[in-house]
Amino acid sequence: MLYEQWLWDVPKHAQWGWIIALYLFLGGVGAGAHITAGMAWILNKKNKGTSKGEAYERINRAGAYLGPPTLIIGTTLLLFELGDPLRGMLMYVAYINPTSWMAVGAWLLFILISTGVANMVYWSIGKSSGKRFKIGILGIPLGFTVAAYTGYLLSAAQFVPLWNEHLLPLLFTISAISTGIAATCLFAFMPIFGPITFELKKGATLFSKIDALLIITEIAVLCVFLMEVKAFGGAGLASVNLLTMGRYAVFFWGGVVFLGLLVPLIFSIHSFKKTPRAKYLTFEFGLVLLGGLILRFVILFGAIKQPIVIP
Amino acid sequence: MGVNKFLIDHTRCIRCTGCETACKTNNGVPTGVRRIRVVTVNEGKVGERNIAMPCFHCYDAPCVKVCPTRTLYKRGDGVVNHTKEKCIGCGYCLVACPFGAPQFPGGGIFGTRGKMDKCSFCVQPFNQKDEQGNMIENEPIPMCARFCSTKALLGGDSTEISKQFRERIAGFISFSF
Predict the structure, then answer these.
(1) How many angstroms separate the most distant Cα atoms in chain A?
(2) How far is Cα A237 from Cα A228, in angstroms, rounded to an integer?
(3) DSSP string, A92-115
(4) Taking all residues of chain A, what is their mean pLDDT, rounded to a whole number?
(5) Which of A8, A94, A157 lies at the smallest CB-CB distance from B53?
(6) What pLDDT is stored for residue A4 in this prediction?
(7) How confident is the model at residue A3, as a pLDDT?
(8) Is pLDDT above 50 for B157?
(9) pLDDT exceeds cutoff 70 at A1
(10) pLDDT value at position A278?
(11) What is the mean pLDDT of chain B?
């Protein structure tokens, strides 16, 4: 948040800084990984017994192993940011206000992490696939709520026009699913899961196609979001100017729009024609992740509070 | 009986910062925590204004709504007070507050912001406890308003303040005619 634009000075240690931005990214990736794992499970069930199904199972496994650690790293980072981290860990004592999105989100994260860790344990045991799948499918609705919560956390601040009430949660949810797909597919390409087969590439290409649709939606939502914030006037106009013309213009146009949205979109449109090489897929998914990371930073640091109006 | 409120007449303030001094002395607030501060807008330009900025004890307070731990709460007499032991120092109230009222002294475990402190209408001094270990609760009499030299800052029962301010405006109008 850009406090220089305020009428009063806020000390550096009181502000929300890079830890929060990184947490919003990691929370989105973790929630997206759970959603991707759930989608891969559905696809796996449809193609059961074939080599295609095995590829989807590998993506499912990658998502199940990636999601909970990402969320745990994110929430641990948050504890380092708190004024009283020991009290912040006491869930029942601390998070008791249901009107606060932070308290709701803490409980949602708690549920998602516990189910995710249980899922991980079932995966590592390997045999009891029935229970594993039942928990794994729970990841889709919970992942959606956690992804939306990262947006609602910011949009609860009514006096920051950039953190729009309706469109920021939507933008963050779409970005979270997109980055979650990217991270899961990248993780599935890792040599610890075995060599990259043609079927795996084909499975990742399907997810790349889903990503293309998500990116197109994200571009549309981003446009409407910026226009609505700009129409707010005052601090909203100043925020949009800061993002598109001011200090963060390089990060916004170069990082979010060009590297994070347009280049991956071109790559994934290419994948509609034929199955691309693993190198290209890795490059595309890496750029999606980079774009999602820069988006969180730009949204957090570009916010300006609506100043008081004096006659 | 109304609720407790502050009223700031920005045309009267001369930026003597007497309110800040009175607040610090009365409540024992350390350096870095400013429960009330005088803000100057349009400095050096036409329309320069000084405004004292305490917590305004909003009717529908955003900080009370967003606080995850119910540290901040609204009392029956309209004062937004805080329970210091409950605070986890997340900084969410500062993000939500339109006036920047919540203050953080710093000095947390990892160099973080520490526990929140804010204007409590002089109900709760800074970290002062009685013999039993409970936080002291005083009568809601704001020292900043008491010591304001030009009476730009009025604080207390809202009906009484409103009556005083109306009389002041009426006097001003009759004087200018």
Answers:
(1) 73
(2) 10
(3) HHH---TT-HHHHHHHHHHHHHHH
(4) 86
(5) A8
(6) 40
(7) 42
(8) yes
(9) no
(10) 79
(11) 87
Binding-face residues of B in 73-92 toward A, CB within 8 A = 86-92
Predicted local distance difference test score (pLDDT) of residue A127: 58
| Contact flag B67-A100 (C-beta cutoff 8 Å) | yes
- Nearest CA to CA, how far is A242 from chain B (Å)? 19
CB distance A180 to A33 below 8 Å: yes
| B104/B111 Cα distance (integer angstroms) | 12
Question: Alpha carbon of A208 to those of A180, A195, A197, A257, B87: distances in Å?
Answer: 12, 20, 16, 18, 44
Six token digits for residue B5: 């409120």
Instruction: From B26, B22, B37, select the one nearest B103 (Cα to Cα).
Output: B37
The verdict on a CB contact (< 8 Å) between A157 and B95 is yes
Average pLDDT over residues A169-184: 94
Residue B160 tokens, joined: 């009484």
Rounded Cα distance between B115 and B136, Å, is 18
Confidence class of residue A310 from pLDDT cuts 50, 70 and 90?
low
Write down the CATH superfamily of domain A3-301: Formate dehydrogenase/DMSO reductase domain (1.20.1630.10)
Which 3 state secondary structure label does DSSP give A204?
A: helix
Q: How far apart are CA A8 and CA A12, in angstroms?
A: 13
Chain A, chain B: beta-carbon pairs less than 8 Å apart: 123
Residue A309: is its pLDDT beyond 70? no
φ and ψ of B81, to 5 deg: -110, 170
Domains contained in chain B, CATH given: 4-176 (3.30.70.20)
